[in-house]
Amino acid sequence: MRARVSCSTFPMLACCIGFAALVFGDVGGGGNATVRSPYKPGTRVTAEDVASVRGQCSRARTLASGLTLRSKHEPAYGEGIGLAYWKGGRLSAPVFQFSGLEEDGPEAKVDLADIDSFWIVRHEDNLIADDRSLIELLVFPTISPRELVDSRPTYSDLRDRFSKSLSLWLTVKSGVGELCLVALGERGRYELVAKFTDIEPDTKVELSYGRFRHGREMLPAIWWATEAVTRDGAYPHRIIFKR
Fold it and tell me: Which of 18, 29, 156, 184 is most buried, taking the most CB atoms under 10 A from its CB?
């Protein structure tokens, strides 16, 4: 599957921000390393720019490694992932955020753009109430676009100060259907990757950063990778060009 992301809501950035045109793919070995970022070095970036990029990034996350399922021997993969309900052989329209109840009660919503990884802690089957699963999210970064632009943190600052764990109860089976991970297929339609109840407990699901389309360019979906962040030597998302 290959992620395809619509940029119909994105043209306003074309006149107010410069974007980097990079060759994508992490390559090991020697050579000159180039940071992965959707922003062109030396160009002024506003909070509005970052917020618009962030909206695109929620639709451009990828499973970093194969997903272990109860029903299959082969790992499951997907690009441009989202969440949807499966009922009667059909998928609902996908959403690009986790929505559930925190363990102490309040409702919480977290966009995929802000999730580093998540764990399936346990599944709970109920005879009367809806079935649900407890997941633990590693939320990164927790900073807002405005604070990112105004305070100009480094990557190390983000990791130290803007990262948190959040436990959520998700409704995974109800009258609406069964909650699933979906991914964008080659024909531009979302396809089933895995039902949440089919993911093994104690499984860590790592998300990597895909790409989104801006004009003719495919740009890294790392909304928080401003120049202040990427100048940090600890910033890990780099491309190495082999000679």
Answer: 184
